[in-house]
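Re: your question about Very long-chain fatty acid transport protein

S., sorry for the slow reply, the queue was backed up all week. Below is exactly what I fed in.
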Amino acid sequence: IKILATLKYWEIKNYNVNNIFQQWVKKCPQKVAFRCNDSVLTFQQVENITNQLSRYFKEECNLSRDDTVAILLPNSEYYPCYWLALSKIGVISALINTNQVGKVLEHSLKVSEAKTIIYDTSFTPVLKNISDSLKDFKLLHTGEGDTIEGSTNLWTTVSHYSKQPLMNEINKGTIKDKMLYIYTSGTTGLPKAAIITHLRAMMMAMGVKLWSGIKEEDVIYDSLPLYHTAGGVVGCFQALLGGSTVVIRSKFSASNFWTDCIKYDCTVAQYIGEICRFLLLTSASPNDRAHKVRLVVGNGLRPQIWEQFVKRFNIKDVCEFYGATEGNSNLINCWNRMGAVGYVPWFARAVYPVDLIKVDESTLEPIRDSKTGLCIRCKENEPGLCVGKILKTRSTSTFNGYVDTEATKKKIIRNVFEKGDSVVNSGKYVLLCNAVFEQLVVCVLPICCKWKCSNR
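Result:
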């Protein structure tokens, strides 16, 4: 309820990510917002840099509202600055998976409808391999090294621009504006570009913050790829919307995980997929329990290793969440219930309509009642497909889908609980269990869901 109330307040005030971030800049300008290795950016520095970048993008690159820029960059403290700057002038950032090459990379650039690419020179060889498809793009590069012919060094003139915000542009923005395109992992074909609005990003980040108990004083360790939702939105937005410090690592390292947490005084750490298992595979060390991490946040911590993980590394709280980048059925297990990914109290289903429906186990196609033609809700201890009802009048239950409208249509199931209604198919097969306080706890089953470190 608090999450919904917060989002509704921001919606009424027409606050987007930039408006909230500016409030934190005023409150704690000299506090560190982002750190990567020994390089830091304070809240004021992030504000100054993003203001200069937004002016550069508008005046020198002729970018305007609703344009798209593809970003192909490694993790760094500057990564969130690019899409924050672009959002200040209403430009959408397509966050390209840095593992993509060849035809897959060409596809991701094409579906984004971007005309500009910001890339690090470390990716020059990858881009040269698809050079024929880059002829219509404006190319901006960062870093030292070999570049694509015709590319412009982004930082050559940025410092010449004013550090004052383009308030006219920022005030044109709304909470429902598109902010990011984040790509699916491509397990069912080529990656699809999911639409992330300001509101969607704010809901995901604040949902995790409020449910898990992340505080302004927390230092968050983020070793996840910033081109995915978990690292880029759930992680980085804790600084932008919540005033926390986010420590970014260039790439996940099991052997350096706890060493980094100790070095940077981290109190919260993120994980996805197999990260917890990788950490358990490392040799025992005094660092295992010498850190200050009280809370880990993420998705994919397997029940089989949950207890071993929290005991070995002395973790007080685990906030396991579930949610697809593009979906509307996000869930959070804030009760530390081992193996669960979330719950919906019976009294909350009216305002957050997430359900499980019976499906064919092999195809995940809905099983319908022979008399009514409607879908069938799961009962206790029955597995089913997790779905979220689409309510256009409620911002948290809308479905923005993908850039590809046909792909969006395929994600929707119609005539589910009543004629004319529709839900979003999460694609996740889960088990419904009854728990104390009449909560509905769901556990992801392995039948069609693979938690890997490269996924969301």
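The first helix runs from residue 2 to 13. Residues 434-456 have pLDDT under 50 and may be disordered.

Happy to talk it through on Thursday.
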